[in-house]
Write a structure and sequence with these properties.
A hairpin with a 4-residue loop joins strand 5 and strand 6. This protein has 14 helices and 7 strands. By secondary structure, the protein is α+β, with helices and mostly antiparallel strands. The chain folds into 3 domains: 4-52; 62-148, DNA polymerase, domain 1, CATH 1.10.150; 164-317, hpI Integrase, Chain A (Orthogonal Bundle). The protein has helices at 38-52, 62-72, 79-93, 103-115, 120-138, 164-171, 177-187, 193-198, 230-238, 247-260, 270-281, 286-293, 298-304, 309-319, and strands at residues 4-7, 10-13, 16-23, 26-32, 204-205, 210-213, 222-225. The termini are far apart. The chain is extended and about 85 Å long.
């Protein structure tokens, strides 16, 4: 017995009913037992269509302003994270005008997220995303309701930096020459993986031991110390390993090397922590570490390269 159409997108089958609707060129199908009424099937069809059809964003709403904001900051390195944080606001207040987001509304929403079990850092990221939207669209000197709400206090920074002797021990166990050269450059410069992908031979001066690191936003590059990474850079060129690579693949090889070296596994990004911490431990000023890391806020540098207690003890002894 062939299926019989009883309404738009609704068909009667030998086993009950089947609803077939096409939304944005994609076919959605669901089967129902014969006990369902035609009215119930129509309600499911209409509700499912409304839920999956893209809404047309109304002008003047938070959702429309969010589109303009994201278009303005699409070049930032953390664009995906920023978009995700802003989506949490538009999911709740996207249909409302932005001026409806008063400090009381924002404070209540942040408190609700914190009460749901989210970490203070996650809630602060969502606060920062909304605050930056106001700043970019209205200007730094205009009213910003988020400024009236302080961020939640963060826990003491976790020391992710490892001693460089441990890092060297692990890197020697990496099998792939390309991955090993890339990770060695990261370990001896503190570069982000995305920054290493943008480096070209013309940006590295091996004689002076410096490199110019281009920014993702197209601004002026920053100069960093590169001398310790020169041997690894030469390996990188020899292995023809410049350009984009998979951080996930590098992480897998790094974890295998940790296992071979009998060292607890750590992240690729911990190479950055390790180098910046080593700079502080060997006498580098915090502002110098900030310049090497490319941080706009020195408070972030303190989380990467916290105070070295042994260095303080030595300074106290010299003072005495």
């Amino acid at each position: 017995m062939a299926d019989k159409r009883v309404d738009r997108g609704i068909y009667k089958t030998p086993y009950g009913y089947r609803v077939r609707i096409r939304i944005h060129k994609r076919l959605h199908t669901k089967r129902f037992p014969p006990t369902h009424t035609l009215d119930a099937l129509r309600r499911w069809r209409d509700d499912h269509t409304r839920a999956h059809r893209k809404k047309k964003t109304a002008r003047g709403t938070l959702a429309k302003d969010a589109e303009a904001y994201l278009a303005a900051v699409k070049g930032m390195p953390t664009f995906a994270d920023r978009k995700h944080a802003l989506d949490q606001w538009t999911n709740r207040y996207g249909d409302e005008p932005r001026w409806m987001l008063t400090p009381e509304v924002i404070r209540t929403q942040l408190a609700a997220w914190k009460a749901s079990g989210l970490a203070n850092n996650t809630v602060n990221h969502r606060r920062t995303a909304l605050s930056h939207l106001f700043t970019v669209l209205d200007g730094k000197n205009e009213y910003n309701p988020v400024r009236e709400i302080p961020p939640y206090p963060l826990p003491p920074p976790i020391r992710r930096g490892l001693p460089m002797r441990i890092v060297v021990k692990v890197l020697k166990k990496i099998q792939g020459p390309k991955t090993r050269a890339r990770l060695e450059v990261l370990a001896w410069t503190g570069l982000r993986p995305s920054e290493l992908m943008r480096l070209t031979p013309g940006l590295v001066d091996t004689k002076r031991g410096v490199a110019l690191v281009p920014t993702a936003k197209g601004g002026p590059p920053r100069e960093i110390a590169f001398r310790l990474a020169v041997p690894a850079w030469k390996k990188l060129l020899k292995a023809d390993a410049l350009g984009k690579f998979s951080p996930q693949s590098a992480r897998k090889q790094l974890h295998r090397a940790c296992k071979a070296a009998k060292v607890p596994p750590f992240r690729v990004y911990d190479l950055r922590h390790s180098f910046l911490s080593a700079l502080r431990q060997h006498g580098a000023d915090l502002s110098d570490v900030q310049a090497q890391a490319g941080h706009s806020d020195i408070a972030l540098t303190r989380r990467y390269a916290p105070t070295i207690t042994a260095k303080l003890r030595k300074a106290v002894r010299q003072l005495g």
